[in-house]
Amino acid sequence: MTLFQPNSAFEPLLRVDRLSLALGSGPSRTPLLDEVSFDIQSGEVLAVMGESGAGKSMTALAIMGILSPGIRITNGRISYRGEDLLNLSPDRRRGLRGPEMAMVHQDAPTALNPVYSVGWQIAEVFKVHKGMSSADAWRNAVALMMRVGLPNAAARAKDYPHQLSGGMRQRVMIAMAIALEPRLLIADEPTTALDVTVQSQIMQLLVALQEEKRMGMMLVTHDFGVVAENADRVVILYAGRVVESGTPQSILSAAAHPYSRALAACVPRMDEAAQRLPVIPGKPASLADATAGCAFAPRCPLRQQICLHERPPLREVAPGKMAACHFSEEVLADGSRAVVFKP
Amino acid sequence: MTETKTTIAMPGGLPGEFVENTRAGRSLTGEAATLLLRSPMVWVALAVLLMLVVMAVAPSLFTSLDPRQCQLLNARKPPSYGHWFGFDIQGCDVFARTIYGARASLVVALLATIGSTFIGGAVGLLAGFYGGVTDSVVSRITDVVLGLPTLLGAIVILATLGSGDGSSIIRLALVLSVLGWATESRLMRASVLQTKQAEYVRAARIAGAGDLWIAVRHILPNSVTPLLVMATLSLGGYVGAEATLSYLGLGLQAPIISWGTAISDAQPYLASAPHMLLFPSLLLTVTVLTLVLFGEAVRRAFDPRSR
User: Fold this and answer.
1) Among candidate residues A199, A233, A287, A179, the one with its CA nearest the CA of residue A1
2) Does some domain include residue A3?
3) At CB < 8 Å, which residues of chain A contact B?
4) Which residues pair with B131 in a beta bridge?
5) Is residue B12 part of a domain?
6) Which terminus, N or C, of chain B has the lesser number of Cβ atoms within 10 Å?
7) Option in B206, B209, B221 nearest A128 (CB)
8) Radius of gyration of chain A (CA)
9) pLDDT at position B14, please?
10) Are residues A208 and A222 in the same domain?
11) pLDDT, tens only, A101-147
């Protein structure tokens, strides 16, 4: 898919440029994201990984423009096809949600309105954005439900959310998200609330739709397996900062940041004898108690004096691979998978 | 007919026509209604309410007597074979007047309930949905209205306005609505605040829905249940309020027949002719009780914890 890299003269579909978010203001201000940058091209799947609280969902909400009140963008730009989203009027911004960018929630069971049938809720999208008549909107909704693989769609459309299983509800959510054929799809942990067996089906559906419609997709996930199979590129966040970006293979096999290396080492492998999985000592850091240096420094086995005082910049450490570590070269030179974290 | 049916049946299976459409969609309201109708008390309440409604719509079905055809000669006569409830001070048949009184009493209660629910619902939705300054301003106004004792307020307003003529039913309902919406508004606001947090509201926002659409299509239907329960419960209260105000001579006035006016007329003769007071009061009590019981049953049916 990445064979045809878009010409750099073209604007990417989405560009997040040094985006910083903070909760509150004044002395009680808590930073949430710190200068996060990445691009998403049309037809590309970008996986955003990281621990809970690393800022993955915040980034997604900031792109969609629906941050909770109290969370402010303190720095940076988000541009969509060259257009600066942060300077758009709220109305114009709202007009983009749906036809241009859409989002699949992590929490499908509660993301559907309990008082309307699912068909009504899908049809609603057509009514609001395209001003379709109820009958037309309903027909489109049923067709869309068939497209996302809901059996017996015509009858199912009359069902209420509580009558559907979790996987079916997630399919309905996906149908709503792709209804207007957006160019950008943000999938925020689309499979977390689902059974393992259903998870892979939903991922397959998402990726099939993404390829069919040539959408740019931002896939927020914890799951390295999902990333390895589906993503074109990966961005790893730690405590609201990008620590590494590159292809899934390069991060799984030869990560340049101790944190990504440790993450990759935590993936259980079928081809090795059973053993205890390595753990990263310490607790997940948040930007709130970050020091002047590297946010990962308190937990890092390679920590040196410089790590505590000087923040490592995000730099290209190998072709197509960016990392924010003072010792990326050393990490890369060390071939073994888990060497960084000997218990 | 039966023969054609059997030929359609597929070999060794269900008839094809039964495969589709066996599961009807069931909404939350549908489930609440099913739950509601399971209780025998609800059936009793519904029967009484139906009777009251028929009484209000077509009183002549219940009595052949004209409540306005009165013989002063019969004044204060006790119940007898032809006149079960006896006669009132003007010599009118108490039974007929009680039957005909249902209409005014119920219409006032219904209009006052609709009015206060509508005002309270709209104000509460506004405050809860927009929050911030709007919420503060609206909530303080609500507090002030809530601070006014409803009956005292109604007495003051009605006494100031003086007795009107034909439109006193509407006027009474209006006064009761204007004084009674505050509780509904608070309830609605609380409910909206809760619903506003729901994931599907955020999902609707993500899908690009606007404020008005979200408020009316997503938040309102999900937060209106407590308001409807409150409305059912307050119906009984308004029947009582109408009677109270009419008894005080401030609500409905003489040419209109209502339970309140009947009770008011009967009060001075409590010792000598108790039947004049007894029967309108009895029907009033039964009505209020039925409405309160029904309202309580509706509340329980919508309460997820009681399932």
Assistant:
1) A233
2) no
3) 64, 66, 94-99, 102-103, 105, 107, 110-117, 124-125, 128-129, 155, 158-160, 163, 173, 176-177
4) none
5) no
6) N
7) B209
8) 21
9) 36
10) yes
11) 999 987 766 888 888 899 999 999 999 889 999 999 999 999 999 99
- Residues A243, A162, single domain; the answer is no
Same domain, residue pair A155 and A180 = yes
| Helix extents (H) in A8-149 | 56-64, 90-96, 118-130, 134-147
Are B205 and A124 a contacting pair at CB < 8 A? no
Domain that holds residue B103: 35-306
Amino acid letter at B52? Answer: L
Q: Phi and psi at residue B66, in whole multiples of 5°?
A: -95, 120
Return the residue of A nearest to B221 by Cα: A115
Q: Which of A110, A115, A155 sits opposite B221 (nearest CB)?
A: A115
Contact A160 B28 (CB under 8 A): yes
A interface test, pick of B26, B130, B194, B200 with most A CB neighbours within 10 Å:
B200
**CA of B26 to nearest chain A CA: how many angstroms apart?**
7
pLDDT tens digits along B285-297: 999 899 888 888 8
Residue B28 confidence class, pLDDT cut points 50, 70, 90? low
Is residue A238 a contact partner of residue A54, using CB atoms and an 8 Å limit?
Answer: yes
CB within 8 Å: B207 and A128: yes
Residue numbers in B near A66 (CB within 8 A):
202, 205-206
Query: Which phi and psi angles does A235 have, rounded to 5°?
Result: -120, 130
Nearest CA in chain A to B25: A159
CA of B133 vs chain A CAs: smallest distance (Å): 14
Please tell me the pTM assigned to this model.
0.75
CB contact under 8 A, B24 and A158: yes
- From A182's Cα to the closest Cα of chain B, the distance in A is 11
What ipTM describes this predicted complex? 0.73
B64-101 pLDDT, tens digit each: 888 888 888 777 777 888 777 788 878 888 888 899 98
Number of domains chain A contains: 2
Nearest to A247 by CA among A260, A259, A238: A260
Whether B207 and A96 lie within 8 Å, measured CB to CB: no
CB contact under 8 A, A113 and B207: no
CB contact under 8 A, A113 and B23: no
Cβ pair A111:B202 closer than 8 A:
yes
Contacts of B23 in chain A (CB under 8 A): 155, 159, 163
What gap in Å lies between CA B297 and CA B303, rounded to an integer?
10
A149 and A293 share one domain: no
DSSP string covering chain B: -HHHHHHHSPTTS--GGGTTT-S----HHHHHHHHHTT-HHHHHHHHHHHHHHHHHH-GGGT-SS-TT---GGGTTPPP-SS-TT-B-TTS-BHHHHHHHHHHHHHHHHHHHHHHHHHHHHHHHHHHHHH-HHHHHHHHHHHHHHHHS-HHHHHHHHHHHH---STTHHHHHHHHHHHHHHHHHHHHHHHHHHHHHTSHHHHHHHHTT--HHHIIIIIIHHHH-HHHHHHHHHHHHHHHHHHHHHHHTTSSS-TTS--HHHHHHHHGGGTTT-THHHHHHHHHHHHHHHHHHHHHHHHHHHH-GGG-
Extract the tokens encoding A53: 């609280």
Domains: count for chain B: 1
